[in-house]
Amino acid sequence: MAGSERAQVQAILAGARAEHGALLDQLSPALQASLPVDATGITQAIEHLGELVGLSEELRREQKQAHTTNPAVLHGRVFGRAPLSRDTVLAAFADAAHVREQVLTGLAVAIGGTTLEEEIRSLLEQHPPWAADDETSETQLRGAYAAQEEAVLRIAAHVDGAP
């Protein structure tokens, strides 16, 4: 199924991964450390799948609104351009992952109903971006972001009619 939605989402994710790698190659180690994960592919895949059901603009608005309280955004409002601590960086990425969790489960409902929503919610709950003590590690973030990539792939497979 070369023209399948799953194949298109795989291509979106691969392209974003390649762009992120190329960007990191151009940055200093300090700047590389400030970009522990990248959700560009996930976000693009969400928008792509949202377009299929006429929700892309609504999903974009929902994410934008939720990101206004992101720890990095709030830090910028209070401290201006002062450097972010490692904890603030990780918290910002974890918060963004949480926003996407909500968007992904909503997209799953729109595309596949409550059965797909439960599947996606279960997958994402197995890989939370932060631990019970609200601490976030890069390893947890990578796991959460990988689960979100898997979620968009599963949603796309559902569009294709795969079980």
Description of the molecule:
By secondary structure, the chain is mainly α. It has one domain (5-160). It contains 7 helices and no strands. The protein has helices at 5-25, 29-33, 40-52, 56-66, 71-79, 86-125, 138-160. Helix 1 packs antiparallel against helix 3, helix 1 (5-25) runs antiparallel to helix 7 and helix 3 packs parallel to helix 7.
| Oligomeric state, counting identical vs distinct chains | single chain
- Per DSSP E runs of 2 or more residues, the count of β-strands stands at 0
What is the CA-based Rg, rounded?
16 Å
Low-confidence stretches: none
Overall SS class: mainly alpha
Largest sheet: none
**What series of H and E elements makes up the topology?**
HHHHHHH
- Kindly report the average pLDDT value: 83
Percentage beta strand: under 5%
Q: Given the structure, what is the number of helices?
A: 7
Give the helix proportion (percent range): over 70%
Question: What topology does this entry show?
Answer:
Elements: H1 5-25, H2 29-33, H3 40-52, H4 56-66, H5 71-79, H6 86-125, H7 138-160
Helix pairs in contact: 1-3, 1-7, 3-4, 3-6, 3-7, 4-6, 5-6, 6-7
Could you give a short description of this structure?
With 163 residues, the protein is an all-alpha fold.
Features:
163 residues
